[in-house]
């Protein structure tokens, strides 16, 4: 009798502690907003089923090791919770299986994550010490248990899971089949169940490639052919035989263009450069977890990056028909310049796959404590040191320069500060204009060097922002900066990044059509005088038939007239909320494109084609 009362003691106390801890972390460390009590209840109960399930397993162990095993489970779950918290603080997202295998980046990401640790993080693990001492007490000493006792806990866990999934499905139909986004999954299933679900998804991805056959690629090709837009004869071949210099501006959002802090322009150089270039002020980034590398993928492939992980990491050995490979057949030499470790984002491998001739990474630069900050070489010495390599390249070339200084958490050395900080409560937002201003200055010097070296007049220069720099976590401070409360509509609009295309001899102008990173490849090919007739989800920005559609990885869609996000439809120009059905068309087209593109990558379907590699 005595045994009966105490045999569940350890499980109950451990479950309670882990359950409450998880909920507290949800509330304090993740922004999982709930809009009614039902969502709050789902959020509250969702850790319990997985916690109980794991703890039921301790009954399968002998009394001798049972308490130790209980502690190991508690440690494991606390670790998962903490790892997600760190990742969330930096990426505003949850860990996925592919992210875990991005071991190449761990060193650098590790630094960023370290900057996000706080002394009070110790609370993530303090309860384990409490449990440790508690388990020494007489009332927590394991007693013999039967299979029935095990089943009791297991069945309770399963019942809880069923109730949880039932509630979640009623709240969010098709949650499991459609995998909306990670935040919704965690909100509804709980962080632990989410990881199990993610593992299952990963195995599905692996199986998909094995099962794909070449029928699917025909469907994709038919779709993109139908969508594609013919080149504008006024622009076709304008860059033929010219060099192409593409600059990726780290974390640079469009809102900084033309904006001032304390009466001073944040981007004085770009503001002027825009006046003699084509400038796209409704150009959106479309990156996912692969951040910079996703933007590179969009640029060179005109395919969507993946919903989970960085495609550079997860599918670096696929067959691709990207810009470097295509233009190589037209006599172009291709190279990338970047002042960071060559294996970051698995670039060294991926660049070989997609056909770059050369990658000037960290080892080509003189990097020391003075000229380095955050992830690597500062932008000014980066461009300065690149010039000597650029001069030696066989012409014509396609070169890409990836800047780095304006990277979260926007650290800078005092001597590099050329503008005041913002003055909000949020240090990240405050520092942001300072590092942007620095990059603006670095690009100004680079352009001057190109002029001095006689390269400028022979080159088309494209400058674009790779992705957002200020995430939604900073909405409050952003609200102060922009002087308004940030709505979901504004959050979509904040995903605009600058795009500047400078063509020698052309005056340029501002083009306000909706456009996105996926449009760059066909635009570049047409400028070079190459028909873009492979598989491209984007369309030429200069085409008279350019399709105004920007599909985000979080499934928001921007169309010519409307913006669909958060299951709400807005008028694009005014931000006015309108009936959600108005957005049905763009939403469906967007989802369809994502599905086709994902299928293409998961199935490695380009291996079944040969159309993009043969010279026309
Ligand atoms: C790393 C740099 C930054 O080399 O491109 O990557 P991000 O964190 O922005 O993806
Ligand atoms: Mn980046």
Descriptive overview:
This protein is α/β, with parallel strands linked by helices and 616 residues long. It folds into 2 domains: 5-208, no CATH class; 225-547, Alkaline Phosphatase, subunit A. Helix content is 47%, strand content 11%. It contains 23 helices and 19 strands. An 8-stranded mixed sheet has the order 7-6-10-1-11-12-4-13. Strand 18 (568-571) and strand 19 (577-578) form a beta hairpin. Helix 2 crosses helix 3 (37-56). The longest helix has 29 residues, at 63-91. It is globular. The protein starts with a helix and ends in a 14-residue tail after the last helix. Mean pLDDT is 92; it is low at 612-616. Residues 250, 291-292, 340, 344, 375, 402, 404, 407 line the site of (2R)-2,3-dihydroxypropyl phosphate.
Please specify the SSE layout and strand pairing.
Blueprint: H1 2-6, H2 9-29, H3 37-56, H4 63-91, H5 97-100, H6 106-114, H7 123-134, H8 147-171, H9 175-178, H10 182-189, H11 191-211, H12 215-227, E1 243-249, E2 260-261, E3 264-265, H13 268-275, E4 278-280, E5 283-284, H14 291-301, H15 311-314, H16 323-328, E6 333-338, H17 347-354, E7 358-360, E8 372-373, E9 376-377, H18 379-392, E10 397-402, H19 427-452, E11 459-465, H20 475-482, H21 488-493, E12 499-502, E13 510-511, E14 515-516, H22 520-527, E15 549-551, E16 557-559, E17 562-565, E18 568-571, E19 577-578, H23 584-602
Parallel strand pairs: 1-10, 1-11, 4-13, 5-14, 6-7, 6-10
Antiparallel strand pairs: 2-3, 4-12, 8-9, 11-12, 15-16, 16-17, 17-18, 18-19
Helix pairs in contact: 2-3, 2-4, 3-8, 3-10, 4-7, 10-11, 12-23, 18-19
Bound molecules: (2R)-2,3-dihydroxypropyl phosphate and manganese (II) ion.
């Amino acid at each position: 009798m005595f045994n009966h009362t105490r045999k569940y003691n350890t499980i109950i106390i451990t479950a309670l502690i882990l359950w409450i801890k998880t909920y507290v972390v949800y509330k304090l460390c993740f922004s999982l907003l709930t809009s009614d009590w039902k969502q709050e209840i789902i959020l509250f109960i969702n850790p319990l089923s997985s916690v109980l399930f794991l703890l039921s397993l301790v009954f399968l162990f002998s009394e001798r090791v049972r308490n130790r095993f209980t502690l190991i489970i508690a440690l494991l779950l606390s670790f998962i919770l903490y790892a997600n918290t760190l990742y969330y603080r930096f990426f505003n997202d949850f860990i996925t299986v592919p992210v875990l295998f991005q071991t190449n980046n761990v060193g650098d990401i590790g630094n960023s994550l370290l900057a996000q640790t706080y002394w009070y993080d110790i609370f993530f693990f303090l309860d384990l010490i409490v449990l440790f001492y508690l388990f020494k007490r007489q009332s927590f000493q394991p007693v013999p248990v039967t299979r029935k006792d095990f089943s009791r806990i297991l069945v309770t866990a399963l019942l809880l899971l069923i109730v949880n999934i039932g509630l979640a499905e009623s709240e969010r139909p098709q949650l499991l089949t459609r995998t909306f986004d990670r935040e919704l999954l965690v909100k509804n299933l709980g962080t632990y169940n989410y990881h199990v679900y993610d593992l299952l998804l990963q195995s599905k991805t692996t199986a998909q490639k094995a099962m794909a056959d070449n029928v699917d690629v025909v469907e994709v090709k038919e779709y993109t052919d139908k969508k594609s837009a013919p080149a504008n004869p006024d622009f076709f071949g304008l860059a033929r035989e010219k060099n192409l210099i593409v600059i990726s501006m780290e974390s640079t959002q469009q809102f900084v263009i033309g904006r001032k802090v304390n009466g001073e322009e944040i981007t004085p150089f770009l503001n002027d450069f825009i006046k003699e270039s084509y400038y796209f002020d409704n150009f959106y980034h479309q990156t996912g977890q692969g951040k910079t590398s996703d933007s590179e993928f969009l640029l060179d492939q005109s395919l969507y990056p993946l919903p989970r992980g960085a495609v550079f990491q997860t599918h670096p050995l696929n067959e691709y028909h990207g810009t470097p490979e295509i233009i190589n057949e037209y006599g172009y030499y291709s190279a990338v310049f970047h002042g960071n470790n060559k294996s970051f984002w698995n670039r060294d491998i991926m660049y070989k796959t997609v056909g770059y001739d050369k990658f000037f990474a960290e080892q080509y630069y003189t990097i020391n404590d003075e000229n380095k900050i955050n992830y690597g070489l500062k932008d000014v010495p980066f461009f300065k040191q690149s010039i000597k390599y650029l001069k030696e390249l066989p012409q014509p070339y396609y070169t890409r320069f990836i800047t780095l200084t304006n990277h979260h958490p926007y650290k800078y050395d005092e001597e590099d500060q050329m503008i005041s900080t913002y003055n909000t409560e949020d240090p990240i937002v405050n520092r942001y204009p300072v590092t942007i201003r620095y990059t603006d200055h670095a690009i100004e010097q680079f352009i001057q060097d190109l002029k001095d070296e006689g390269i400028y007049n022979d080159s088309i220069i494209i400058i674009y922002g790779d992705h957002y720099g200020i995430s939604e976590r900073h909405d409050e401070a952003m609200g102060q900066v922009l002087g308004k409360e940030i709505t979901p509509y504004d959050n979509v609009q904040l995903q605009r990044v600058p795009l500047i295309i400078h063509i020698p001899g052309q005056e340029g102008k501002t083009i306000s059509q909706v456009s996105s990173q996926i449009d760059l490849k066909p635009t570049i090919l047409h400028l070079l005088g190459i028909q873009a007739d492979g598989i491209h989800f984007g369309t030429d920005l200069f085409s008279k038939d350019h399709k105004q559609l920007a599909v985000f990885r979080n499934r928001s869609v921007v169309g010519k007239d409307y913006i669909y996000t958060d299951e709400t439809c807005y008028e694009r120009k005014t931000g006015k909320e309108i009936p959600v059905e108005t957005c049905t068309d763009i939403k469906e087209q967007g989802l369809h494109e994502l599905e086709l593109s994902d299928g293409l990558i998961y199935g490695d379907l380009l291996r079944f084609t040969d159309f993009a590699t043969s010279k026309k």
